[in-house]
């Protein structure tokens, strides 16, 4: 009997519990396994980056920011795709994100329409990203 395909694993990091629950529900509904973390430090303490297919990280969090987390992961040679989400539509964020190896920045709260498709694109290595 053929085994069913593995559901992609996405780790979501956001300090807002309501956002975590909402994104977990959205992504699980769209066919992903989801792990949630309330801080960059919690993610670093609990994970092996190689286990996740994609990371969705909030830009502004207490302690380590999403961009700082991405930079640290890249310095550790983690090549897991990262999508940065933010409620701060600052024009400098995409350039900062790119420097940290992040190819996509999505603005809250209107990410529901595009987050899942961006994750699938990132997992599949879409060259347009």
TrEMBL record:
Domain Response regulatory, chain residue ranges per copy: 9-123
Gene3D superfamilies found in the cross-reference section: 3.40.50.2300
Keywords: Phosphoprotein, Transcription, Transcription regulation
Annotated positions of the 4-aspartylphosphate modification: 58
Biological processes, Gene Ontology terms: phosphorelay signal transduction system
Keyword match Coiled coil: no
UniProt cross-references to InterPro entries, sorted A to Z: Bact_response_regulator, CheY-like_superfamily, Sig_transdc_resp-reg_receiver
Transcription recorded as keyword: yes
Pfam families: Response_reg
Listed name of the protein: Two-component system response regulator
């Amino acid at each position: 009997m053929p085994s069913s395909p593995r559901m992609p694993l996405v780790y979501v990091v956001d300090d807002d519990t309501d956002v975590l629950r909402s994104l977990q529900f959205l992504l699980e509904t769209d066919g992903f396994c989801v792990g949630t973390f309330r801080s960059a430090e919690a993610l670093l303490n609990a994970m092996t980056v190689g286990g996740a297919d994609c990371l969705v990280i909030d830009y502004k969090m207490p302690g380590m920011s999403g961009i700082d987390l991405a930079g640290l992961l890249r310095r550790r040679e983690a090549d897991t795709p990262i999508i940065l989400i933010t409620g701060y539509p600052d024009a400098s964020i995409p350039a900062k994100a790119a420097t940290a190896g992040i190819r996509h920045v999505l603005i809250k709260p209107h990410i529901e329409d595009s987050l899942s498709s961006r994750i699938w694109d990132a997992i599949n290595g879409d060259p347009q990203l």
